[in-house]
Amino acid sequence: NDGRNGNKNSKEKQLDAFKVDDKGKKLTTNQGLKVSEDEFSLKAGDRGPTLMEDFHFREKLTHFDHERIPERVVHARGFAVHGEFQLYENMSKYTRAKFLQDTSVKTPVFVRFSTVNGSRGSADTVRDARGFATKFYTEEGNYDLVGNNIPVFFIQDAIKFPDVVHAFKPEPDNDIPQASTAHDTFWDFVANNQESAHMIMWIMSDRAIPRSFRMMEGFGVHTFRFVNEQGKAHFVKFHWKPMLGTHSFVWDEAHELAGIDPDFHRNDLWNAIENGHYPEFELGVQILNEEDEFKLGIDILDATKLWPEEDIPVQIIGKMTLNRNVDNFHAETEQAAFHLGNVVPGIDFTNDPLLQGRLFSYLDTQLIRLGGPNFHEIPINRPVVPFHNNQREGYHRQTINVGKVNYHRNSLAGNTPAPASEEEGGYVSYQEKVEGRKIRARSKSFTDHFSQATLFWNSMSPTEKKHIINAFSFELGKVKSMSVRQQIVDMYANVSLDLARAFSKKIGAAPPKTGGSNVTKASPALSQENTIFT
Ligand code: HEM
Question: Segment Disordered: which positions (predicted)?
Fold first, then answer.
């Protein structure tokens, strides 16, 4: 039971106001003029040329000619559904976010699952990370948790994002291969940017071929901050845990399905919801005291590292139920704009340089993808609470702001910022102390690229290890450059000699040269007194 009982939540009611059902209606032009004919253009004579004056023809064709919008520069292929989130326990000890306080409130959500590298028309079951982006329509405005199904990332600094994406997308000379990890530039990037070692272990594992969107974990990846009413902050990592458990395909199944049913994951999610089998995910948090920032043996600002769950358990705090398919793919799924910068009071950022760069990139890309600065007015992106500010005009403005005051400060309209008090709820950034010299370099604390990759490998069962070896062998087997193949063998000797030896044989490379000379020590486990929960 999704608990909706026919009741519409605030987002559903808002979207309803924009819905139009054309069934049984007489056709009109966009100006509301009834048309008498829709199959033949207006011609001069029986067999004569089409006339310029045919406004109906021109309107219909022009609209068609302009139907496409750019696909997302990454995560182009996605599928989204509506749902609700409900909290299990009050989190006010850690955060003042209102939707994380009251266990009786059901917050509407919109969730878009996606692949990363494939184009809009690519297959669902390819080897790739999956996006898991959630928009919470809270009473304090939209909060977006824009995550992936893998807890770490390829790079540490956002300035490298264009490089990693260029290398992973189809090669620019011939646009081959589609959505694949099996080509020279992918592995050349990996070998020359070795901070990717850990993420690539996940990508070569069964996690990168999930059985269903309903059976994937989700991770916020970065370290964020919770800030409570008293202004006290804790570091936090976000997790989604699927109630159906985490399941993957074996590689052969994924391959076959990409041919038999390239929409496999879409069909699976759509049908589950149509049949009332509502996917559920529990929201979990790992929480770290600010004083313990340096006690994990890793830098918590480095997105290539996770916080071991045995050291910092995931505390389950609520559940999301996905219970409604969209009415219109373009209007909702394609036009949805997720952005890490959409936060509510009580949730804040850290200095993770990947996170900081993302804060720029999402809004920037959406300005072009969705045609200008008013895309927050598109129904799927509107908050369920009203928005008021002095921003005006721009392409496709829909709000008719009345009155002559469009500036701050003023005495004529009296529209002012809200204080940060509990009642008023104005957002205040966490007052972290920041100082330092300007520097463009990798922090020393970001240089351990292999220890968690090794832990990942060591935690795998023999079957999972076999799958990983087969994945490296298959993907690298498609790489034309023998030098790149060898570089990867030598690189992965730092993760596991067994692994590197096993796939080196299958790809015609020499056994690893280094003997793991670069092996770095595993992160020290947290000692008991450092563990977190108070
Ligand atoms: C989508 C940039 C890292 C998850 C996107 C988009 C851009 C982008 C430009 C397209 C957005 C749109 O057109 O609406 C970046 C940059 C990154 C980065 C610059 C690093 C520097 C990450 C990471 C994650 C992630 C670490 C996961 C934690 C997603 C998801 C989407 C997305 C889930 C799809 C959102 C949707 O469903 O519409 N990213 N990204 N990205 N990104 Fe990132």
Answer: 1-21
Cα–Cα distance for residue pair 494/471, rounded to 1 Å? 18
How would residue 513 be classed by pLDDT, with cut points 50, 70 and 90?
A: confident
CA–centroid distance, residue 528 to ligand 1 (Å): 36
d(CA 362, ligand 1 centre) in Å? 7
Other C-beta atoms closer than 10 Å to the C-beta of 71 total 16
pLDDT of residue 178: 84
258: tokens are: 């990409």
- 424 is written with which tokens? 């008023």
Residues 87-128 pLDDT 10s: 999 999 999 999 999 999 999 999 999 999 999 999 999 999
Q: Is 127 helix (H, G, I), strand (E, B) or coil?
A: coil
- Report the distance separating Cα 222 and Cα 250, nearest Å: 29
224 annotated among ligand-binding-site residues: no
Give distance in angstroms: CA of 222 to centre of ligand 1: 13
Q: Indicate if the pLDDT at residue 188 is higher than 80.
A: yes
Write the pLDDT tens digit of every residue in 197-245.
Answer: 999 999 999 999 999 999 999 999 999 999 999 999 999 999 999 999 9
Largest CA distance in the chain: 91
Closest by CA position to 221, among listed 354, 390, 82 = 354
Ligand-binding site membership of 161 (annotated)? yes
Q: Whose CA is nearest to atom 34 of ligand 1?
A: 75
Pick the closest to residue 216 from 249, 242, 237 (CA basis). Answer: 242
User: Does residue 146 line the site of ligand 1, with CB under 6 A?
Assistant: yes
Res 519 pLDDT > 90: no
Q: How far is CA 439 from CA 195, 279, 436, in A?
A: 20, 46, 9
Handedness of CA 205, 447, 454, 149 (dihedral sign): negative
For residues 328 and 309, the answer to whether their CB atoms sit within 8 Å is: no
